[in-house]
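PROTOCOL LOG
Step 1. Enter all chains and additional molecules of the complex.
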Amino acid sequence: MATMVKKANAFEILNHWVTAISFFVLAATGFAFLFQLEQMNAVFGNFNQMKIVHNYTGLVFTVSLFLSLFSYLPVALAVSGDDIEWLLKGGGYFSKKAVVPPQGKINTGQKGYYLFLVLTGSAISVSGFYIWLLPGIRKWILLSHLAHNIAFDLMLIAIPLHIYLATLANPGTLRIMLTGSVPLEWARKRHAKWIREMGL
Amino acid sequence: MSRRLRGEEMSRKAILVSPELCIGCRGCQTACKVWNQLPAEKTKNTGSTENPPDLSAGVYNKIHYIEVPSESGAVRWLFVSQRCMHCDDAGCMKICPAPGALYKTKEGATAFNKDKCIGCKLCVAGCPFDVPRYDAKDKISKCNLCADRIAEGLSPACAKTCPTGALKYGDRDALISEAKRLGYAKLYGEADLGGLGSLFAFRDSPKLYGMNEKPAIPETLVFWHNVLKPVAKWGLGGAVAASLLHYVAFGPKKGDGGDE
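Step 2. Run joint prediction.
Step 3. Record the structure below.
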């Protein structure tokens, strides 16, 4: 049995899945609104009920995203020269033998993804609440509608990549969001700076 | 010309509004309320004969009173019927996320179904003419060209009642040719937004009658429809395809099975 290190705590794991599931519900219902997919009535009954599900799930998503700030924002903002180098090397994803600089608790790509999620997530949340709660000023509703849909498009592109990178592309990563622990040697290879900081 | 009605071009109907013929009797407003069973509402004196002051959930059409001062001293009265324009390319329908809440009748009217409306009010933002209103239950309310009457070959209540011919209902093409014969070179709404179902025979610039010179669907809505909607589909598919392609080309990170 390999020595294990704790990479995510119970709160982070739980909150991750709250974000993920709420996103999935929002994306599916949002897609149905976007293209008027009446097939969705098989799940929600009618578009009136689907709207209620979409709005309140949006509330869950927003709270969950907000709570994640405490877990990831400080580490995501701690950038250094290593991050630049990591980016220049494309994270080592486009070569079979590239060596990337040592990484902290989360790597450059993960930092970028998280900050991206905070930006698009905030835009989609604020615009969503505006459309829901403050219809009336035409100019602002149109702007919110635009922001909501731009953020949605960006997320529809980014989330499949996130899922791919956390599963097929990087075997052994998914368990961080299941059990929270990874083998020490696995972590040393991918998060050398973090392991060093912990003195392991 | 009319995309949504291709093949049924001849059946597109319209109302021709001729402000010069209107005497401001507001019989159209009353007839509309009677036929559509709309409640009267409390109003207040605003110093004008115009009443009620605006379209609302219970006011599908109204006469807008405009006073134009002239050099000779006499005031010129303009009476303009305000109502849904029944655009061929309707901004309200474009932005509406609920299938069937807004729909086109075979006559070209933009009608609504309150049961399907989800009360999101996006149509208000999508309309170039500030027409849609919401009732107490947060459902869309607006002129539907008396869809139930015209389906039976009758005139809309307003046009049926109009004593002077200021509101004329009929085949859209016939109304246009008739107005041309009477000397109106260009009707307001003839070509805008794919052609409006409410046409206006103005003697002067539309601005004088309180109308937007160049009505159009909001640019953000056009961008959303033409770019953001396709990107939602192709972006999602592309990201999945790119992931699989990357897996085939580069595979997983080496030596990272993990437990070695």
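Step 4. Note key features.
Residues 47-77 of chain A form the longest helix (31 residues).
Residues 4-197 of chain A form a domain with the Fumarate Reductase Cytochrome B subunit fold (CATH 1.20.950.20).
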